[in-house]
Input
Amino acid sequence: MATKLFRREDHAPLAPPSSMTVFSDLVELRTQERVQFIDLTELVAERVRRSGVGHGLVCVQSKHTTAAVVVNEDEPLLIEVMKRMVERLAPPDAEYGHNELHRRREPAPDERGNGDAHCKALLLGSSQTLAIVDGALQLGRWQRVFLVELDGPRPRTACVIVMGIPR
Amino acid sequence: MATKLFRREDHAPLAPPSSMTVFSDLVELRTQERVQFIDLTELVAERVRRSGVGHGLVCVQSKHTTAAVVVNEDEPLLIEVMKRMVERLAPPDAEYGHNELHRRREPAPDERGNGDAHCKALLLGSSQTLAIVDGALQLGRWQRVFLVELDGPRPRTACVIVMGIPR
Amino acid sequence: MATKLFRREDHAPLAPPSSMTVFSDLVELRTQERVQFIDLTELVAERVRRSGVGHGLVCVQSKHTTAAVVVNEDEPLLIEVMKRMVERLAPPDAEYGHNELHRRREPAPDERGNGDAHCKALLLGSSQTLAIVDGALQLGRWQRVFLVELDGPRPRTACVIVMGIPR
Output
């Protein structure tokens, strides 16, 4: 493998040791499709601004086992590609013992056959943690934060928690 | 796509800027199966209570490259479904160059042919970061935190670290 | 399932509630291959030391939608195995609508047909959050932190942010 060139932009500790702020918020939304990518980026960035945190972390967490939180690009054709991939890796029509509700102890009243949705969520992950520098959510040019519905339509909740030193 | 209704439950910064607490713990356990989901939720929630943190984050991290940490539902039939999916995506009987120990520089003394387990761990992820609000681990109704053994049985260690402002 | 033996090594809160430090750094590098695992462990450990943080968290975040951050083992044959798995789960020669640039609104000037790379990144994840205890990055014996190039060669940036109480 060829040599790699690393250029480093170093920052000294961003501030003298300081007191810290924690800010949390619940985002509630109603999804419309069985599998749907919902762009939460502006919502998250707004919470970061409102928190008053200058340098720290924000964690965006799904409160569900069949909805994930991911970072990728918000481009309509790409979203179709990503949907098709998760459907391919965990097809809705495969056999899932979890879907045989009569074999289960206490299925939820609104339970459906959704073993595939749990599998998709397991692959995509339930939360994302991102950096905050100089009061701004650190995202690359094409990066967006999504809640990914995998068993919709349903009401869903995401938790946004911002922690760091004040601006 | 139809319009989306967002209802927002806003919280002001949860407390005035404050000093912070960090609490860490190692959880050691011995797994029993080759692929096994071990529910750590009560262990993690107990560390959150013991830390004295009121608002902040907890990170649960596997110390291994063939054991993952995930969030999903603890339902026996579903766990079988999730095991079958990871076996399907990285089958133990596929060819893995990593398993040809004679080709490797320094295989560990207890090394087995476990290329599939590394692949599974790569897909599931090595840690989970979750929110703490009002002294409680933020999990949805069905969410549980698991260490996922992918190359057991083995002794395993998870690191639980809690960081935030005191209650 | 057999009983599990848990041994717990408990740590009291690691220090009295304290002020906190945040340290951030951008790591810029130029990748050489289409799919490449680049070991950032020493770079990250060095930032942890330089931050002066004794107990806390470090988050390593890709700033890209076609480059991921993962934790696994740095063993050459294993890396070939992991590359083959991600190629198998999202083959570069499958049909991806995202690649039909004429159907898209504003393709980037350097855009290539890279739907597979987005899919791979979606599965691997964009960041990793790891514990810091006693001034040291907490990694198991075989754990290493990688930036994973999925659409190279390209210039890439990772953000390293360290947060916690000072040593």
Remarks:
- The radius of gyration of chain C is 19 Å.
